[in-house]
Amino acid sequence: MNSNILQQGHYYGTIEKKVQTKGVILTLSNYPLHAQLPDHFHENSYLCYVQHGSYQEQSVSGKLVCEPEDIVFHPAGIVHRNTFPHAPAACFNIEIDAGWLRNFDTAPFALTRISKLKSAALKLLIAKMQGEFRQYNHWSHLMIEGLTLECMAIFQREKAAHSGVPQWLQQVREILHDDTQAASLSQLAAITQISPYHIVREFKKAYGMNIGEYVNQLKIARACALLKDTDLNLAQIALDCDFSDQSHFGRIFKRTMGFTPLQYRKATE
């Protein structure tokens, strides 16, 4: 099979913007409806955050359907091809230079196949990185590299913690990612047939935070996407992200992100 290699910083599609530091290349790439990309692989490992739209990806590991807000890890050298049968798409790519990583005696995620990563913390870090990407300034390269290392640290920590996680607890996490409104303990207990007390204790042990904190991170990550990609007002975003009201949304957002929703929207314009 003939496959094209894409060198550092190169992607198919239309490149809307690219920012490069010594160790990290951020790229926003756009793809039209019905686009079909040939078999190819990348020189460096990278994370793809689906900003909007959807696509299908075929590799030796099988077929992935990638939808808005999905985070997909691509190891260097893994052949894949992409199609966009249902909608145009925009992808925010975080490419990691292997040589730069050797300075830190680490590797870019301990994965050998294309995989979706489900992590509320990773989504929040990517949202912060998008702010630096949009409003790049003299200090942004330090922020971007620091956030990238933090992404890898969180992934490695979560991977180690999850190695012994039982299937029912993985199911709880999947439910939260699919629908934050399904976060009541009574609902989770009914679905998993596990006692609420046991769910609370084991969730915090495995994921380093309680269910409420985890759900808030997912809500804020969703709010970041809406602030960046839509013109919805804050009251509507608060409602769409399941906050009790706009004031509650603003407090949680500021506490989590370090700035207000309007400041984030302005930074990502």
Automatic annotation (TrEMBL):
Ranges of residues in domain HTH araC/xylS-type: 170-267
Coiled-coil zones: none
Keywords assigned by UniProt, alphabetized: DNA-binding, Transcription, Transcription regulation
Single GO MF descriptor: sequence-specific DNA binding
SMART domains given in the database record: HTH_ARAC
InterPro entries named in the record: Homeodomain-like_sf, HTH_AraC, RmlC-like_jellyroll, RmlC_Cupin_sf, Tscrpt_reg_AraC-type_HTH
Taxonomic superkingdom: Bacteria
Gene3D superfamilies associated with the record: Homeodomain-like, Jelly Rolls
Record-linked Pfam families: HTH_18
Name the record gives this protein: Helix-turn-helix transcriptional regulator
Origin species: Chitinophaga agrisoli
